[in-house]
Amino acid sequence: MQTESRKLALDKSGDAMRKTMITGVTGFVGKWLSHALRGAGFEVHGLDRWNDCPYDDVIYHQCDILDTQAMNEVISSIKPETVFHLAAISYLPEADHSPRNSLDINIMGTVSVLDAVKQGAPQCRVLLIGSSKEYDDAIDSKCLSETTHPNPTNFYGISKYAGELIGLQYVRQYGMDIRFTRSFNHTGPGQSPRFVCSDWAKQVASIAFTNAEPTLSVGNLDPVIDFTDVRDVVNAYVKILENGQAGEVYNVCSGNGHELKWILEYLIAKSPRTITIQTFDKKFRDHKTNNIILGDYSRLHTHTGWKPLIPFNQTLDDTFNYWENEFRNAT
């Protein structure tokens, strides 16, 4: 384990800053969450397994969450007031390809984090990030609430529901303050092109600003998906640890459905070149996907006042502009 220290201990008034920890900080959501927390005046500690962290305003700790001794040392040395547990295998096909690895990281990694908090910072509030994939893929719903019993049908969803059940047992057995999300799809600038909105935005930007072949590869265009902007999502996470309740599960979603076909047409319209659409079999999932599943965030709004603020058109615009800048800077 390597730990990098930076002096961020005092805020502008000279008072000690509240300490928070983000596991998986170098990922897509970690970037936006660390930015939001720094803006709220937190001393942000980030943890991940990579050698470096690209964010200057994060005190970075290189650590594998499966290394229980290293996790204990990091948490005991920092004693954070809050922990946002983002570290996970979050790409569903990757979990399907390597179930053991995803189950190790998403389940035993969660146990490692919770044990470290229990031993080194027992008063800490923890947010465990779950997924709408904990719900049944056979469900088609326009208002799915947390009262719907989970019934995951893929390894990713299974691992996330297992983490939730384990966390609830830590609440019951050890009295820990743990809150939970079932986060629906979220996207925005900087997301990996392994995910659909960023994938299409990148392909269209490449066609528009390079000499790339004007052909765009897609998979199934039928589903209607509940997307939330990542910047709204991280604000929900902060509000849950500020105003939510221990042992409670919260859907993080927009409640609005967006047809994949409409998203594709919206992004294609940004290209000055005519684009041919090509259906690519490898982009179809091996298992069933909901035709429509829209979440209900009423509980989250009631407990914290949160609601999504960023229009989805802006999310797509910002995601496309991110890739436009990437291609322009590369030339």
Under the CATH scheme, which class of the largest domain?
A: Alpha Beta
Let me know the average pLDDT: 93
Q: Please indicate the count of domains.
A: 2
Total strands? 16
End-to-end separation in angstroms reads 38 Å
Strand content: 15-25%
Radius of gyration (Å): 20 Å
- At CATH level 3, the topology of the largest domain is Rossmann fold
- Indicate the CATH architecture of the largest domain: 3-Layer(aba) Sandwich
Q: What proportion of the residues is helical, as a percent range? A: 40-55%
Biggest sheet: strand arrangement: 1-4-3-2-5-6-8-13
Number of helices: 10
Which structural class do you get from the secondary structure elements?
alpha/beta
What shape does the CA trace take? Answer: globular
Main sheet properties: 8 strands, mixed
Q: CATH superfamily name of the largest domain?
A: NAD(P)-binding Rossmann-like Domain
Task: Walk me through this protein's architecture.
By secondary structure, this protein is α/β, with parallel strands linked by helices. It has two domains: about 1-185 and about 230-255, Rossmann fold; about 195-225 and about 255-290 and about 310-330, Alpha-Beta Complex (UDP-galactose 4-epimerase, domain 1), CATH 3.90.25.10. It has ten helices and 16 strands. Strands 1-4-3-2-5-6-8-13 form an eight-stranded mixed sheet, sandwiched between helices. Helix 1 (about 30-40) packs across helix 7 (about 230-245), helix 4 packs parallel to helix 5 and helix 6 (about 195-210) packs across helix 10 (about 310-330). The longest helix has 22 residues, at about 100-120. The chain is globular, with a radius of gyration of 20 Å. Mean pLDDT is about 95; it is low at about 1-10.
